Amino acid sequence: SEEGFLEIETPMLGKTTPEGARDYLVPSRIHPGCFYGLPQSPQLYKQLLMCSGFDRYIQIARCFRDEDLRADRQPEFTQIDMELSFVDVDDVIDVNERYLAKIFKEVLDVDVQLPIQRMTWQEAMDRFGSDKPDLRFGMELTDVTEVVKGCGFGVFTGAIENGGSVRGINAKGQGAMPRKKIDKLTAFVKDYGAKGLAYIALQEDGSVKSSFAKFMSEEEMSALISAMGGEPGDLLLFAADKNKVVWDSLGALRVELAKELDLLDKDEFRFVWITEFPQFEWSDEQGRYLAMHHPFTMPMEEDLPLLEQGELGKVRAKAYDIVLNGNEIGGGSVRIHQNDIQEKMFEALGFTKEQAHTQFGFLLEAFKYGVPPHAGLAYGLDRLVMLMAKQDSIRDVIAFPKIKDASCLMTEAPTPADAKQLEELGLEVKAETEE
């Protein structure tokens, strides 16, 4: 290619690893009781290629994930997958900006403004309540925690005392929104864990309707309205809870309002790079930190001491996503290429040396022979095409897509296998017993 990439195909029948989403398993006839895993991504292979002296790899790769299909996911999908040696974050971003500019110009005759705007994960969450912000409209989140921390409204002060925050969005010109509609929005944010929505409706005649005015003094109300940039005719909506709940609910509410107010122009393409993701995220389910991307993501150099000290919640990763109109179309990271950092990473994730070796021994072994600094990125081809074709779902751009329960309407797959096939594979199907 112009940029010096070599297209290399990696195996579909690979090793199954229990980390992350579920693998699709393929039983081996020749090795009874053993299974291949279909690749969730060519991650390990492409890192091995970097160890082997290929410095720029690209592949249009089929990937498989056996997960519950949330809105707009498919069990099999296509990635444009790449990996580069001797690079850092900026190099990967540069190559990909040229790539995006080229395909948007050639396919749609759209000029992508370079360089593409960049934003840290923290800034994206604080301003938009989302790590894939849609920049086609405003309605940014405003943190009013400091403004209301001494007020008389228990919902606000309670959230702050529990280490949370109070944030709001200003729906310009929506001050006359009927109460019923506000109740609908309140029900909407409850799906994201919020307990409710507090609101201030500023009427055109200067009067104020609010769900919590009786708990606030006039000074407190006017300080809050001015902090939100509220003007007559505006509707101010607030959430108070743990940061994650406030971000999730207001971030989703912001997009929901934009849809209702018809602020989303499909002919406008607003790209943004999100950088400096957290290295770890806390799992309530498992009661421990998990890797936000995968265990091979390089932490930012200045945060390595935090990894040593076990302050995992503060470690930032050299990871980046490319976002278009509120959709993550690609993501990647700089990979760890030093054994000692990789071992610390496994340790932080609670892997024993044996577990790490069982799952990733072949990669760690290759690393012993010297591995160049490397980084990569993969695009979701289906999602990228969906946005370019101005469609609402990836099913609209895939031939023979699966439906929600991962079945194919055309061929009726999956279907029971023939008894002879099962016997050859040494498998038997247990009938589901009624509980």
Automatic annotation (TrEMBL):
GO (cellular component) term, any one: cytoplasm
- Enzyme class, one word? ligase
The protein's superkingdom reads Bacteria
- Domain Aminoacyl-transfer RNA synthetases class-II family profile: start-end pairs: 1-401
Reported EC number(s) for this entry are: 6.1.1.12
Care to name a GO molecular-function term for this sequence? Answer: catalytic activity, acting on a protein
- One of its Pfam families is GAD
Sorted keywords for this record are: Aminoacyl-tRNA synthetase, ATP-binding, Ligase, Nucleotide-binding, Protein biosynthesis
| Record-level GO BP terms | aspartyl-tRNA aminoacylation
Give yes or no: UniProt keyword Protein biosynthesis: yes
Q: Which CDD domains match?
A: AspRS_core (cd00777)
Q: Which NCBIfam families match?
A: aspS_bact, PRK00476.1
Family stated for the protein in its record = Belongs to the class-II aminoacyl-tRNA synthetase family. Type 1 subfamily.
Q: What is this protein called?
A: Aspartate--tRNA ligase
What organism does the UniProt record list as the source? Candidatus Mediterraneibacter stercorigallinarum
Q: Lineage in the entry? A: Bacteria, Bacillati, Bacillota, Clostridia, Lachnospirales
